[in-house]
Amino acid sequence: MMLDALPLDELRQRSSTKWATHGDDVLPLFVAETDFPLAAPIERVLSEALRIGDTGYVPPKTRYPDSFVSFAQRRWGWDVDPGRVRTTCDVMMGVAELLRAVTKPGQKVVVTSPVYPPFFGVHEESHTEYVDVPLLKTPGGWKLDLHGIDQAFAEGAVALLLCNPHNPTGTAHDAATLAELARIAASHGAAVVSDEIHAPLTMPGRDFTPFLSTGTDAEKVGFAVLSASKAFNLAGLKCAHIVTASEENAQIVQRIPVEVEWRTGLFGIKAGIAAFEEGDEWLDALRERLVSNQQLLVELLAEHVPGAVYEPGDAGFLAWVDMRATGLGDNPAARILEDARVAVNPGLSFGAPGVGFIRINYGTSPEILTDAIERIGVLIRA
């Protein structure tokens, strides 16, 4: 079974960033929101909460940690201690607070471009500086530059922001690579903060390896930050969680100010519990749709956008497309928005390797995706 997106006329009634940023003549395929109806269990719990006015603060204890623990075991075979799961407002708040907890002002943190733009901006909040060690493009896909990361640690970097699965390439880093990364970090006394928000969207037949599951080195150096928000389209409800696998790192998280946990949204907690406990069928139907949309995007680009290069990733609903041979310049997203009336993310915002690239959100209907790529094709042929 595949999940169907909502029709365009209903989507245009939404007031979130994806649908409110541009006018009705623009097809929005940029920000990481999806166009599907809420999973029925989530709609049910939120509707019931509204009915009884259950819109207050998050209580000190919920079953959210236990719900995630069961989900992690069921989906990935990952054993998590519920006592080492602490909620926060969203993944990037968790990342910022963790960086503050494991670094001193002015210290350097490794990022691996092309990567999620907030990985560059978070350092203003955490009072750190980033050093970029770009991914390596290999015949087997995008890989971490482990030698470059080792060198960056040797030159003084004290932490690394890991994106696993990686945004925008969709790469789910393999277990051996992650274990070696953990060994390198441990040898330098460095920390690894792993953003694993896209993990529930790993494609059928592909493997996701949680960083903390790769051995004692990872347990020693690692912190993971996750959420149901990307998979179940819950970003506005404000709930994510931090996971640790050692007592020392659990204590570091416990020392983070309590206000960080208070900022979790009650609706986010409720929706997350419903997603983790009752959302498997909906999630699997979504994943089947995304597999289909990936293949459709490959076919559409080949037919309508000669010169575009796209290698489908292991996870997520975001496509990293090389447009350098299309003649649209270093920032093709600007031309595409202006002349094709399609909003995609500019590759430049993902770091220096993004020159000439765009990121396309294919978490939508085949009809919208087809219309968007056909519009871009008309621009290319003009």
From TrEMBL:
Q: What Gene3D superfamilies does the record tag this protein with?
A: Aspartate Aminotransferase, domain 1, Type I PLP-dependent aspartate aminotransferase-like (Major domain)
Does Translocase show up as a keyword for this record?
no
What cofactor does this chain's UniProt record say it requires? pyridoxal 5'-phosphate
State the InterPro entries in the record.
Answer: Aminotransferase_I/II_large, Class-II_PLP-Dep_Aminotrans, PyrdxlP-dep_Trfase, PyrdxlP-dep_Trfase_major, PyrdxlP-dep_Trfase_small
Top-rank lineage group of the source organism? Bacteria
| Assigned keywords, A-Z | Lyase, Pyridoxal phosphate
EC nos: 4.4.1.13
Alphabetized GO MF terms: lyase activity
Residue stretches making up the Aminotransferase class I/classII large domain? 97-376
Please give the family membership noted in the entry: Belongs to the class-II pyridoxal-phosphate-dependent aminotransferase family. MalY/PatB cystathionine beta-lyase subfamily.
What name is this protein filed under?
A: cysteine-S-conjugate beta-lyase
